[in-house]
């Protein structure tokens, strides 16, 4: 180790300088995050109305209860033809022409004047035919469609008390029933068909319901309008009509949380909408996907974020599968919903909760109508958030922070220098070859910085994650071997234990430096908002494991107890090729492969591998007890394994040194992986790693004691039974 440090001191100084630059970036990011300490809640009016129907109170009473909890904003979706048909007192119907013309006598069902007009104009089966009855319905629908659709796309016959309207549609608007087939009496397929059932036109927003607006505003609550937009019906004319609708009720939205497929007016560039958003200081909402990774990116959302200098917040929608978490995991009430909201706010930079009422776990339509459940949930949530300095109010917005280009180059060069240092950890390289390799790496890094500026930060982050995890693995394995050479094989545990703790702590510090180098290139605001995503997490976890296997063969050969060199030799390769693999090693390899698959499959929220209920409860308890929950694999397996690997090196047990060392390497990758989650505030990463080290040291000491007892028992059994026989 000393020889390695002496030979490579120049490159190590350069690497340390790059780490120092990364710490400057981290400090800047920390400052940005420290000001981002307010979250908001927006109630979903539609579901609140449905819940009110199942309770003894009307929607006004429920709004008042939530207002008393400190929630003052309500998300109100604009009406559409579909909503007017399904959940409105207005008498409105809309049908795609494909269904209308299937009735041979359809013309007799409509005014002759209207039929003559549309036949003269022309129609097709993709159009939508609308009927409205009653002055209120006629006024609302006729005004909405004439303001939002171009004159050539609308035919209206209005006599005051009833109206017939034809809206021009296209094949791109058409909604089909999933492919289905007819079958004969022998249940054999006869023919397949697609059935037109609806049109996107029937979901286009037509304006806010005046009665719902009055209900919300009379309570002094603010409306956050939800406007549904679809391509082909979302130009400047449409955007102007939408904004005029807002202004009619004195609404200037605090947030715009886009619905449908786009921001308003985006068919022709969205300049009108962007000007409206900028002029009124409106914050753009980025809706997190239901797998809790990335955002739902409707057309124009990212453009609006950039145009407003990232006046943007992440929005967590209470998806239906979360609504059903009442009485979940053995809790009595909505504790698991509270846990979900807590993690979204604290761990994922979410600052707006789009809240939908909780439902019964075993009933998709039955809401929990006990107001105390919601009061207790938000009181508990706010108490827990207070420990992080987070309070309820208008959602805070992070300042726009971008990494300077030259700083990015230095970070990339640091990753390149670190990569050049890796071969010298297992090959007998002279200093000049390492320097030459570093020079080549620097040229490649500089070239990528010039040619691939956008991809460069991803490459620099990925390379740092791999390189520093490998350096940490090399350090703890070489330190373990050196400890084994320094201490006798029968050394007392109290002599071994302090050394194992020191090896663990220093290894984690090296990996933590890698975490800083990993996080720094991606610490710009767009990545913290998940407008950009780090990809390659699984590969960054696998590469250090392969490197560890190469290191172990270099340091121990195939489980040699007294190997003196720390370099890969030709005989290592020939011995491996000639090795008669015992059956037990194949079984063990299969077990390790399954464990590895499970480890990788659990990464992320998109995996089909579920976490056990017991572990979920343990995680929740740790979240309640500690500032940040340490990663389970780190404190329970990986960090104790590094201590066990060093202990086994002293006891001259190379096989177990390899086994525990492999698990320990996972811990090094995990530390870097903690800081790959750019959306997670930095202080949580540091706290999480610190807790994991403390708990890992305690469990490592316990595991070493247990292993020592097992080893002594095995030696006695072998002495008195196997050797005697």
Uncertain parts: none
Distance separating the two termini: 44 Å
The strand count comes to 16
What profile does the largest beta sheet have?
Answer: 8 strands, parallel
Q: Report strand %.
A: 5-15%
Q: Can you give the helix content as a percent range?
A: 55-70%
Structural class: alpha/beta
Rg computed from alpha carbons, rounded to a whole number of angstroms: 32 Å
What global shape is seen? elongated
Number of helical stretches of at least 4 residues: 27
Query: Overall mean pLDDT score?
Result: 89
Protein model, in words:
- The protein has 725 residues and is of the alpha/beta class.
- Helices cover 55% and strands 12% of the residues.
- It has 27 helices and 16 strands.
- The model has no long low-confidence stretch (mean pLDDT 89).
Q: In a few lines, what is going on in this structure?
A:
With 725 residues, the chain is an alpha/beta fold. It has 27 helices and 16 strands.
Could you outline the blueprint of secondary structure elements for this entry?
Elements: H1 2-7, H2 9-34, E1 38-44, H3 45-53, H4 59-68, E2 73-77, H5 81-86, E3 91-96, H6 97-100, H7 112-121, E4 128-133, H8 135-148, E5 154-158, E6 162-167, E7 174-183, E8 189-199, H9 210-217, E9 222-226, E10 228-229, H10 236-248, E11 255-256, E12 259-260, H11 271-279, E13 283-287, H12 301-307, E14 312-317, H13 320-323, H14 335-347, E15 350-355, H15 371-386, E16 391-392, H16 405-421, H17 431-451, H18 453-486, H19 493-519, H20 525-528, H21 537-556, H22 570-578, H23 583-601, H24 613-625, H25 632-650, H26 654-674, H27 682-722
Parallel strand pairs: 1-2, 1-15, 1-16, 2-9, 10-12, 11-13, 13-14, 14-15
Antiparallel strand pairs: 3-4, 4-6, 5-6, 7-8
């Amino acid at each position: 180790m000393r020889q390695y440090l002496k030979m490579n001191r120049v490159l190590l100084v350069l690497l340390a300088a790059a780490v120092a630059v990364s710490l400057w970036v981290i400090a800047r990011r920390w400052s940005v995050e420290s000001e981002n300490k307010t979250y908001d809640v927006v109630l979903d009016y539609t579901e609140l109305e449905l819940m009110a129907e199942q309770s003894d109170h009307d929607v006004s009473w429920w709004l008042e209860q939530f207002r008393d909890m400190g929630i003052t904003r309500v998300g109100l979706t604009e009406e559409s033809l579909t909503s007017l048909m399904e959940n409105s007192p207005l008498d409105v119907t809309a049908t795609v022409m494909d269904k209308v013309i299937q009735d041979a006598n359809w013309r007799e069902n409509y005014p002759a004047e209207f039929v003559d007009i549309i036949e003269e104009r022309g129609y097709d089966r993709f159009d939508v035919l609308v009927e409205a009855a009653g002055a209120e319905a006629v006024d609302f629908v006729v005004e909405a469609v004439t303001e939002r659709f171009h004159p050539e796309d609308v035919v209206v016959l209005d006599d005051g008390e009833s109206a017939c309207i034809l809206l021009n549609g296209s094949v791109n608007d058409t909604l089909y029933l999933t492919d289905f087939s007819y079958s004969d009496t022998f249940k054999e397929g006869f023919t397949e068909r697609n059935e037109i059932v609806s049109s996107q036109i029937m979901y286009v927003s037509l304006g806010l319901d005046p009665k719902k607006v009055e209900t919300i505003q009379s309570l002094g609550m603010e409306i956050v309008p939800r406007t549904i937009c679809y391509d082909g019906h979302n130009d400047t004319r449409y955007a102007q009509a939408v904004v005029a609708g807002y202004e009619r009720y004195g609404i200037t939205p605090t947030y715009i949380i886009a619905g449908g497929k786009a921001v308003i007016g985006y068919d022709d560039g969205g300049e009108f909408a962007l000007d409206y958003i900028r002029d009124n200081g409106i914050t753009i909402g980025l809706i997190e996907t239901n797998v809790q990774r990335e955002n739902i990116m409707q057309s124009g959302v990212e453009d609006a974020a950039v145009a407003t200098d990232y006046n943007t917040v992440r929005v967590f929608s209470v998806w239906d599968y979360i609504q059903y978490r009442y009485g979940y995991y053995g809790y009595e009430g909505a504790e698991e919903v509270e846990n979900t909201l807590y993690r979204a706010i604290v761990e994922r930079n979410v600052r707006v909760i789009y809240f939908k009422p909780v439902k019964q776990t075993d009933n998709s339509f039955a809401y929990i109508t006990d107001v105390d459940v919601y009061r207790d949930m938000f009181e508990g949530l706010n108490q827990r958030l207070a420990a992080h300095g987070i309070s309820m109010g208008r959602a805070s917005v992070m300042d726009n922070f971008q990494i300077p280009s030259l700083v990015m180059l230095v970070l990339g060069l640091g990753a390149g220098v670190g990569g050049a240092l890796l071969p010298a950890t297992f090959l007998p390289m002279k200093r000049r070859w390492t320097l030459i390799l570093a020079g080549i790496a620097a040229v490649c890094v500089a070239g990528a910085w010039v040619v691939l500026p956008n991809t460069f930060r991803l490459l620099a982050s990925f390379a740092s994650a791999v390189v520093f995890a490998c350096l940490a693995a090399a350090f703890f394995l070489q330190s373990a071997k050196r400890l084994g050479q320094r201490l006798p094989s029968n050394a007392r545990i109290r002599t071994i234990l302090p050394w194992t703790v020191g090896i663990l702590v220093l290894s984690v510090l090296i990996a933590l430096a890698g975490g800083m180098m990993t996080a720094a290139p991606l610490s710009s605001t767009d990545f913290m908002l998940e407008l950009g995503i780090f990809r390659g997490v699984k590969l960054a976890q696998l590469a250090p494991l392969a490197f560890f296997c190469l290191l172990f063969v270099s340091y121990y050969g195939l489980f040699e107890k007294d190997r003196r060199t720390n370099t890969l030799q030709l005989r290592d390769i020939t011995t491996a090729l000639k090795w008669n693999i015992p059956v037990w090693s194949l079984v063990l390899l299969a077990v390790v492969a399954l464990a590895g698959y499970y480890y990788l499959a659990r990464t992320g929220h998109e995996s089909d591998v579920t976490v056990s209920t017991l572990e979920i409860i343990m995680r929740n308890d740790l979240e309640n007890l500690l500032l940040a929950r340490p990663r389970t694999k780190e404190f329970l397996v990986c960090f104790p394994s590094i201590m066990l690997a060093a202990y086994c090196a002293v006891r001259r047990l190379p096989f177990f040194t390899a086994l525990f060392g492999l698990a320990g390497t996972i811990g090094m990758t995990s530390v870097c992986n903690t800081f790959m989650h750019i959306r997670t505030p930095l202080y949580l990463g540091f706290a999480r790693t610190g807790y994991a080290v403390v708990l890992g040291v305690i469990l490592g000491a316990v595991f070493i004691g247990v292993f020592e007892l097992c080893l002594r028992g095995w030696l006695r059994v072998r002495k008195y039974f196997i050797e005697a026989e």
